[in-house]
Structure to design on (171 residues):
């Protein structure tokens, strides 16, 4: 998918999620009822950031597309701030505790960290297994080589003994 198309799809999905949250914020009983839309917002924000980072590395990006990406990102940030305010007003917290939105963001960031750590552990485990398989193959080849050399040496020994017993030993 082209960067512009991906960015437009992300903006469209974010707009739909924001509209749903704004329409339903007073009807829902808990944040869990709108968690899917909040997740969509975070995913869209991530997608826009990824697209903007991809564009930063490409040499033939037009000035207009880079401006559009920045403006869409800013607009999404403003809308997310509006959603944050609405959620905090709907589910207020005491002043000495983090806001409901901050708890959501902290939870989201924690899950992202856990996901990255799990991916890192999976890569490390795959590398360990690969190295283990490589070592097993090396050991197997070494043992097979030693066995082959031993068999060849025994065959040479038997051939030499057979040849020497066929000749008469003259003293």
């Amino acid at each position: 998918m082209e960067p512009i198309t991906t960015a437009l799809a992300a903006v469209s999905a974010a707009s739909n999620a924001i509209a749903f949250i704004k329409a339903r914020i007073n009807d829902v009983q808990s944040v869990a009822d709108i968690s899917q839309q909040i997740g969509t917002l975070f995913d869209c924000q991530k997608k826009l950031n990824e697209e903007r980072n991809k564009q930063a590395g490409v040499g033939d990006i037009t000035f207009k597309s880079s401006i559009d990406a920045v403006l869409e990102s800013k607009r999404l940030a403003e809308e997310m701030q509006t959603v944050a305010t609405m959620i905090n007003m709907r589910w207020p917290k005491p002043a000495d505790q983090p806001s409901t939105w901050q708890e959501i963001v902290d939870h989201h960031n924690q899950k992202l960290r856990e996901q990255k750590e799990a991916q890192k552990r999976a890569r490390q485990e795959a590398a360990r297994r690969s190295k283990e398989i490589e070592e097993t193959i090396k050991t197997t080849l070494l043992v097979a080589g030693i066995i082959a050399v031993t068999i060849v040496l025994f065959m040479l020994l038997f051939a030499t003994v057979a040849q020497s017993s066929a000749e008469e030993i003259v003293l």
